[in-house]
Amino acid sequence: MDDWGRLLTAANSGDDSAYKLFLQAVAPVLRGIVRAKGSALGDAGCEDVMQEVLLAIHLKRHTWKPDTPARPWLYAIARYKVVDAFRARGNRIDIPIEDFADALAADTGPDLTEAADMAKMIGMLDPKSADIVTRIGLDGASTAETGLAMNMTEGAVRVALHRALKTLTALAERHVK
Predict the structure, then answer these.
(1) Count of CB atoms within 10 A of residue 82's CB?
(2) 72 in a domain, yes or no?
(3) N or C: the chain end with fewer CB closer than 10 Å?
């Protein structure tokens, strides 16, 4: 009987220290098997499988026959747990997005639908309000420049702009619902 077999026999007889030594001895070897067989699962996936292996050993250690070698029994548990992990994963492939962050960067160009949407919404305003919103909001004119161009005081332009924006907000809320 090998060392693992002697430790497992003692553990199954109630020797807690033997069980601890058994787990310390088998865990690194089984972890290597899991990583070799399940490398496509990634580090986290392999560690999950390893936890499943250790749990299965703990729950099924009474099924091991002391007159048989422990290694094949343990290797079979590890192999089947890796297979179970691949079955559970299905055809899904997990690739860390961080590896492709530079290649997947979105173009920060203008939204082509935004201008059409704004024009449509501004078109729903009365002509004077639409002109004020267009001059200040889209063309970047100041309230003073808009007032001069439309023969209004700055205060009147600010009030009209505020009312126009309030109307636009109400229109947008209606179209979203």
Answers:
(1) 25
(2) yes
(3) C
For residue 59, CA distances in Å to 51, 55, 56 come to 12, 6, 5
Q: H helices of the chain, where?
A: 3-12, 16-37, 42-60, 70-89, 112-122, 127-133, 143-150, 154-176
Instruction: List, in order, residues 6 or more apart from 58 with CB less than 8 Å away.
Output: none
Judgement on whether residues 116 and 88 belong to the same structural domain of the protein: no
DSSP 98: G
pLDDT tens across 120-155, in order? 888 888 999 999 989 988 888 999 999 999 999 989
- Which residue range(s) make up the domain with 163? 112-176
Q: What's the CATH code of the domain at 39?
A: 1.10.1740.10
